[in-house]
Structures
1.
Amino acid sequence: MNTKRLILFVLLALGALFLSACSGQPLVNTWPGLAADAERAYISSGSFIYAVDVQTGSEVWRYPAEADSKILFFASPVLTTDGQLLIGSAGSEHPFISLDVETGKENWSEPFNGGKGVWVASPLVVDDVIYAPNTDGFMYILNLNGKEIADPVELGGALWSAPVTDGELLYVASLDHHLHIINSETLTVTETISIGGAVPASPAIGMDGVFVGSFASKVDFVSSAGVSTTVAEMGNWIWGTPALNGETMYYADLDGKLYSLDLTTNRQNWDNVKPNGPVVASPLVVGDQIYIAAEAGTFIALDRDGKIVWEKTPGGKIYTTPVLSNEFILVAPYQAEFALAAYDFEGKQAWTFTPQE
Amino acid sequence: MWETLIIQPLTNLLLWIYDVLGHGPHMFGLAIILFTIIIKLITWPLNASQVKGAQAMQELQNDKEWQDIQKKYAKDREKLAQEQMRIYKEKGINPFASCLPTLIQFPIIIGLYQSIIRALSATPLDMLNLARTVYPFQNVENIIPLNSTFLWMDLGRPEAVQILGFGLPTLAIIVALTTWLQTKLTMPTSSNPNDQSAQMSKMMSIYMPFLLGWFALNFASGISVYFIVSNILGVVQYAATGRANWSNLFGGGKSSTATKK
């Protein structure tokens, strides 16, 4: 082999190596979003949003019809009472769109393109107002036709989670380690509270305040007046939203521990319940069972004493919070053989959904 | 293995520099610049050996004995290869000495790109992976999320300056220009028209600016900052060792042997 060929071969090999290492936009790789109503489940996964019949597991529609490399979805879509499905793109182009839940067709004549960053957070819809937090640090205020009805609220940091509301105040968490309390009437920020770590998920609404899990490895209660109190500390980050059920709060951390905190006594109901490795998804409480999706690809039902009732292995990795729809609990694994699975309360798998090419 | 040996150390080094700098706005860009300087200092001996190897190969092209065997064994490739190896041995030249440093630096470039993307954590999964990448001694809760702003850029995204509604990719242009500058200054001129390595260098000076400019256009601007600083430091290194071929820039091309050794 002469020198010229050798150098060309080396250059080609290096080029291939470089391209294989860098190919694809960085935003492609993350877990899907999931929402459901009584009839359909809606999965946002990469280039598409799929509507899936909850009874049969068959695809009802997908949006868009053809993949567009500039558009990516992974926020959980949000349903409105007037039949809209709202979601923003996290791709290199990032429109915020509204789809008809029945057909998957776009509702608005033009998508909202005012966000400077991508959309990782789901919006919050209250009456006919959409509160849409963006990674540019602003929360945009739209009506149900996708038109801005007020100036965006500047909060700072990347906003990755949906706001929550008690009817009067909006609570918005930011990755910049802060929780913001906003008056929903005047849209003024009344309090900004330091949490001590990034907050990737929505807070949980409690009595006169919210519970916030964070990368500071603790859960804080922040009152509507902006007073923060740490209610629990653990060994690792809390990713998901704590699940409140009566006087009990369930939450899990990246060490894989599931906690059950009695809010009346501030004592743990059990000790050292570790279902199966790190947990990113929020717990789901239905009836007497607590459902946990672990990163290891297992889906577990526990009773109120922390005992495992059943355990299933959909495969892949599970980061998306399971969703209840009628008599099924829907699980959306990441990088598994299928995109969605439905389980009944006894753990029997009803169907799986795999998008067709 | 790639994760443990490349991504993890590079990401932690970047985060450590960022933390030391005070993790405010623009600090991640400064961290990339400092990181590039550190990498350049570490690979300085390798680069020096690359320069030396390229110089030796260039001089060989003008060697009379070398040119004679090219003619003599033009039709006997096996014999030609044997003779070439003999001359390499006699003159103490390693024909791969100029390629090896490039080969070693490539994983660093790829690793840096992946480290920047990981550190900036544009997606939830990136953030989760970052948590697992960081060494225990790092104060990870405090420093993430990283502030990806640097001057007018978001280091996690391709850069373009909006002028009259048109996105001008200034960084990609600077990357292409500095790459062209570096390859021009490091490209020896040859008096031998059959000099294959000179022809290859000429091709490189055309293709590399386009290739790296294309990367800068399409990938996170943090990697463009690395390319620019790396190119400038490369020029500085060549100039400091007296091997920069300024005649390629300002005309009056002299043979490579005329450059300072």
2.
Amino acid sequence: MSVDTEGTTAALAARDYKSSVKPVWCPGCGDFSVLSALTKALAEMQLPPEQVAVISGIGCSSRIPAYLNTYGFHGVHGRALPLGVGLKVARPELTVLVSGGDGDGFSIGGNHFLHACRRNVDITYIVMDNQVYGMTKGQASPTTAPDWSLSKLTPEGPGINPFYPLVIALASGANFIARASTSDPNGTARMLVEAIRHPGFSFVQILSPCVTFQPEQRDWKKLVRPAPVAATSDPAKAARRLMTDDNLFVGILYQGSREPFQPRLENRLEHPTELEEQFAV
Amino acid sequence: MSADRSKPPAGGADYTVDELLAHSLAIEAEAEERYTMLAEQMEVHNNDEVAKLFRRLAEIEGKHVAKVQALSGDTPIPHIAPWDLRWQGQSSPEAPEFDDLHYLMTPHHALELALQGECYAAEFFADIAASASDATVRQMAEELAQEEREHVALVEKWLARYPKPDRNWADDQDPPGQE
């Protein structure tokens, strides 16, 4: 953060949200573009870094909190959403972002995904979807195509239909649903701003190529295209649109108006020792 | 790579002075930040020679940022949200795209990327100069295009020192493949 000569705080730039930790992602990984988009989005919103918390699970993309200059928590595999929901419920004044990959979010954490959509707490869930478990050297994930045969664990492909995150999010009650692509970091930044501003549970699937284990995903940038219709607030219309979705349309699909879940906070503890006392034996 | 990313928007290239300054600042700042990120990637992957080149390119782009700021004098350059910047394609004309990298890339590849970016930036400003109705914009855009042409010449000079590598440059005896 830079401070001008008169001592007032100058505007925060995208670089002010980046930490000094160098990402260990493979060169060419789509997640670099997500990091760039996210820092641009936070800068556009001028959110104080200490008022933002980024919570993740396990996986390549789940490393992102370390690369940001906000608060962060690198949690347990698949459990990023309960952590994020708990934090937001306890500290509603914070901007809570939850991030991770398709394996973490839709397999190990699949059940949490359904219920986070349903509960509709005011957080934003960013899934960097590369249709593979990259960190463990390339196994099929819930969003992998049934005929993807490059893993020795599934030499003839997983053979089962992939999980459709947008369909599940809509059916489960997410209040904002969008898909972005790492080929357009500025467009992704805009979508993240919209998602963060929208009250309730916002879900953004970002197509983020794994250049090591799914190198053909480099072609996504030639294939993705803007959705031909504007966002809708009608879930029935959104559902009909998803019937013809080929997973390569980008844009905001659905913006609902459901009231976010936020329980009243009563009897807040003044000090953590009070909590210890409650559990003392 | 987006084929048209060097071009100003079709039918809307008539920038004001403020818009031109905001775009040129965004282009140079993005290039500085991108080269820094690329240098970090190469450092993490122990490709020191390419990392140093990217660091040097980031430093040069940082000087361009200062130059654009100087062009505006005492007048603050207006901020334009990244998604409202006007150019064809999805990427800033000058910054290499994230997926253009490979962990075994050589200085030749890095300089080819840089050359492409400088050429795109030169074309971008030249196109604005050619279509601007305002004389100040025309002059400023031509000055920026000339600056980029000088960088093109500089990168070409550097590139001459690094011949094209063997076609098997990406072969890895211990690839990050599946067990």
